[in-house]
Amino acid sequence: MKINYQGLYEKWTKPFLKHPLALTLCKNLNRVFTLIPFFMYPVLLIVLWIQSDTRFLRIFCVPAISFILLSIIRRAINRPRPYERWNIAPLIIKKKKGCSMPSRHVFSSTVIAMVFLRIFPAIGICLLVLSVFTGLIRIIGGVHYPSDVLVGFFCGIFAGLLV
User: Fold this and answer.
1) b/e per residue 24-44 (b: at least 16 CB within 10 A)
2) How many CB atoms lie within 10 A of CB 64?
3) Neighbouring C-beta atoms of residue 159, cutoff 10 Å
4) For residues 143 and 81, what is the distance between their CA atoms, to the nearest angstrom?
5) pLDDT value at position 1?
């Protein structure tokens, strides 16, 4: 069964295009949801370093190495982004070509959430929810397919379990 992604995407984005405030909110949430884990992770590393926590090295190395491995795999797959393959106007403007699978934003925020889940469970749960919303925004924004986001999320969960 062949999916008409263009029609599906137009259905998903119609409410955002009808309401300029919703469109602005989507774009701003994309920025904020991306920045939150990337701000919190270095702060956590600094705290662990200052406290001479024995988990520091593992909490630094596992996400870093898994990010590098995921980037290599992503480059090898080099899947075109939805706006490259379909005649859609993405809500999130991005000029990057290829490297859609898996979503590195979702992977990174998920692996960071898993790290926090180990040390501060309540914050980790909040960050996992944030990762899900980041994925949804990346799909609605037109920069990733749902499968890109799901693979990024599950790779982040797996890498986080190694911490």
Assistant:
1) eebbebbeebbebbeebbeeb
2) 11
3) 22
4) 6
5) 64
The DSSP secondary-structure symbol of 92 reads S
At a CB cut-off of 8 Å and minimum separation 6, what does 16 contact? 22, 23, 26, 91, 140
Residue for token digits 């070509």? 97
Q: Token pair for residue 102?
A: 């898996």
Run means of pLDDT, 10 residues per run, the chain, 163 residues: 88 92 93 96 97 97 98 97 93 91 97 97 98 97 97 98 94
Helix (H) or strand (E) holding 132: helix 121-140
Please report, as a single letter, which amino acid is at residue 68.
I
pLDDT of the residue at 2: 77
The burial class, CB within 10 Å (0-12 / 13-18 / 19+), for 120 is middle
